Amino acid sequence: MRARSEAAAQTTPETAETDSWPDDIFAILQRFDVRQVPYVPDAGHSQLIERVLATPAMRAVPLTTEEEGVALLAGAWAGGQRGVLLMQSSGVGNCVNMLSLTQVFRFPFLTLVTMRGEWGEFNPWQVPMGSSTAGVFELCGIKVLRASHAGEVAEVVEAAAGQVYNACTSTAVLLSQRLIGAKVFTK
Amino acid sequence: MNKPNLLDRRNVVASLLAGRKDAVVVGGLGASTYDIAAAGDHDRNFYLWGAMGGAVMIGLGVALAQPKLPVVVITGDGEMLMGMGSLATVGLQKPSNLTIVVLDNEVYGETGGQASHTASVADLVGVARACGISDARALSTMAEIEVYARSIQDVASGPRFASIKIDSANLERVLSSRDGQYTVTRIRGALGFAPI
Questions:
Q1: B16-43 tens-digit pLDDT
Q2: Predicted TM-score (pTM) of this structure
Q3: What homologous superfamily does CATH list for B9-188?
Q4: Nearest CB to B66: which of A62, A69, A79?
Q5: Is the omega angle on the peptide bond into residue B159 within 30 degrees of 0, that is, cis?
Q6: Which of B64, B80, B81 to substitute to test the interface with A, most A CBs within 10 Å?
Q7: Is the Cβ–Cβ distance between B95 and B69 less than 8 Å?
Q8: Strand partners, A83
């Protein structure tokens, strides 16, 4: 089982190759002309967030709660821009009522969710929401795709972005804890 | 709560929007959306019938996408209280073309007039200022509102926030379209974006 690095800078040499998947995601977001990137931070998204913050053509928007990001992306679409919401699985429950907007407006909603509460989880408080993340999305009318290995991330995110931006089919990509590594708690 | 000399919400919104030009106007669910509809339907009106707590963030999304257009969010105190964190998000982004106006009647008017937190303890102007929106003020006369309406057109000096204490009387509903796809597609069309 892989351990999650606390920050991209701490990535060990033997995992450096597999951690190119955040760069794969970034390249896809650039190619689809994604302009607004709201997020609540997660260690699993830290590398991607750094890439977005360093890119003038993209607007990184830190949020106080994840539901803000759903509303932001609805406004962005009305104003002519595409976006993507980055969050952790525990934030998905915070979005539930606001996800109504994806059906009311039928706007292109893409979210990339780093998973907690599975695959070697240490913290029991993460398990309930992590276990219901996919079900919550499905109940809210959002398609769910999952990537569990570094080699499939690009393919899955590409498919998700395609159906979101070309077909206005709201989609969540779950990035498995098996992919990002379980968080290690040390005293 | 009955207080003398409170402003009429329909007069306030009509005055704010009389010289709106190219502005995109987002209305929070409930009476604020009815006020905007009462001021006249417009293809840049973003009517909300739900998504409570989301009006400011929808406005922020439009404002970041269209930095040369004035974007005005007009919402109520209950809706603003539910999305109070979004004031911190706006304070961080500092969109210079965004104006947030709260029509504060100190009650949840759509649900029977229960008191909101602004009736006693919550100071939304103070919250906005503490979140980094330095132009945060209370407006209390129609003369002030006429001046403020002109400042909305200045897309270089926001974000700005105003709270206006209004009369809590329930007025006749003026119903806008409640079809979200129609509303968004119409705004996108007005801004030059074709359907997919």
A1: 999 999 999 999 999 999 999 999 999 9
A2: 0.95
A3: Thiamin diphosphate (ThDP)-binding fold, Pyr/PP domains (3.40.50.970)
A4: A79
A5: yes
A6: B64
A7: no
A8: A36
